[in-house]
Design a protein that fits this description.
Number of helices: 12
Shape: globular
CATH class of the largest domain: Alpha Beta
Radius of gyration: 20 Å
Number of domains: 2
Number of strands: 13
Structural class: alpha+beta
Order of helices and strands: EHHHEEHEHEEEHEEHEHHEHHEHE
Strand order of the largest sheet: 2-3-4-11-5-6-7
Distance between the termini: 7 Å
Helix content: 25-40%
Strand content: 15-25%
CATH superfamily of the largest domain: Malate/L-lactate/L-sulpholactate dehydrogenase, NADPH binding domain
Largest sheet: 7 strands, mixed
Length: about 375
């Protein structure tokens, strides 16, 4: 496997670069700040598949006329506990922040709030929005439909569903519990990051049209994004190991994030929409006020006790304690704030192209912005 140079870039420097590109696209200052925050926070948490590595795709969508960087989302239907938002074909990050904030406002008033979004595009990591609810003291649940058709359903030879992620966050007396997961064995972007870093794929992530595993990252990338057959396995893998459960969860996520929102279903959209039509991705945001069920912070206290028991569970390896959802991301965030965010050479070149094509200055070529460069094999 060829080596790949990875440069550690300070998060502030990467933030300036992302902001410069989004501003050059004509995005409003408030949206630039929100979208940039979401992208950088995603990379800080170690979710490299959904952060700055998505900019080349966003640039492609903009060039094709699908993405509206000057979007003005609007509420098209609303009750005391629900709302539906038209994202105006913009990126999903800013409208998702607004949607979750609205769902939380409603739940703090009524006990529960649900907001759906349609006519949107990729919104990054779902956990960002679920955690935003927990930070306001409520439970958050997020689901979204997807652009790419990558999941091979149980017994199928080709992909039909997407990675269809779901995120859940709940407040405790200390750090929130934050679960953010694809309903495939791995997010499609993980295959992309392995390709960017020239790393082989673990067996079981990607299968070809005959069901055989694909471990070469170049072949895996082509299988997901260029070929009609093969794709990602559902969470659980084969039928014998529970893959039908991941398949079922993926369908549930599309019902909430796609059908309920009035968004498109990717296999149908790919057949029926014009090449420059927006992706019409849909999102779902649910907020539940624990105070409507448990008075005086009882929920947070009890959940903190649950987390403590899990943390104190005897591990099989003393060097690897038992973790709770959200722990790995918090640990990675602390590390990357100190050491910088890793940018592989392939991504560095792609970001340079995106900046040039947008007319923005490329700010990542200065060695002063890099905190460490290393060669991996």
């Amino acid at each position: 496997m060829a080596s790949a140079t990875v440069t550690r870039v300070d998060s502030a420097a990467l933030r300036r670069q992302v902001s410069a590109i989004l501003s050059a696209w004509g995005m409003g200052a408030d949206d630039v700040r929100v979208v940039t925050d979401a992208i950088i926070e995603t990379d800080l948490r170690g979710i490299d598949s959904h952060g700055v590595s998505m900019l080349p795709l966003y640039a492609q969508l903009r060039a094709q006329g699908k993405l509206n960087p000057k979007a003005r989302p609007r509420i098209v239907r609303e009750t005391s506990t629900t709302a539906v938002i038209d994202a105006d074909a913009g990126l999903g990050h800013a409208v998702s922040r607004k949607a979750m904030a609205l769902a939380v406002d409603k739940c703090l008033s009524q006990g529960c709030g649900v907001v759906t979004v349609f006519n949107s595009h990729h919104f990054g990591a779902a956990g960002i929005y679920a955690q935003a609810a927990a930070e306001r003291g409520v439970i958050g649940l997020v689901a979204t439909s997807t652009r790419f058709v990558t999941m091979v359903p149980t017994f199928a030879a080709g992909p039909v569903l997407g990675t269809n992620p779901i995120a859940f966050a709940a407040p405790t007396a200390s750090e929130p519990v934050v679960l953010d997961m694809a309903t495939t064995s791995v997010a499609a972007g993980k295959v992309k990051t392995h390709w960017l870093n020239n790393r082989p794929l673990p067996e079981g992530w990607v299968v070809d049209g005959t069901g055989r595993p694909v471990t070469n990252s170049e072949e895996g990338y082509k299988t997901l994004f260029e070929r009609a057959e093969g794709g990602l396995t559902p969470l659980g893998g084969s039928r014998e190991t529970g893959g039908h459960k991941g398949y079922g969860l993926a369908l549930m996520v599309h019902v909430l994030g796609g059908v309920l929102a009035g968004a498109s279903f990717s296999p149908i959209r790919n057949r029926s929409q014009a090449p420059n039509d927006p992706d019409n991705i849909g999102h779902f945001f649910l907020a539940i006020d624990p105070g409507a069920f448990r008075p005086d912070g009882g929920f947070q206290t009890d959940l903190a006790a649950v987390v403590e028991v899990l943390h104190n569970t005897t591990p099989t390896d003393p060097a690897q304690p038992v973790l709770v959802a959200g722990d790995p991301e918090r640990s990675m965030r602390a590390e990357r704030l100190k050491l910088g965010i890793p940018i592989p050479a392939k991504l560095h070149a792609l970001l340079r192209d995106v900046a040039r094509e947008s007319g923005a200055e490329f700010l990542l070529g200065n060695e002063a912005d890099a905190t460490r460069s290393r060669r991996t094999r």
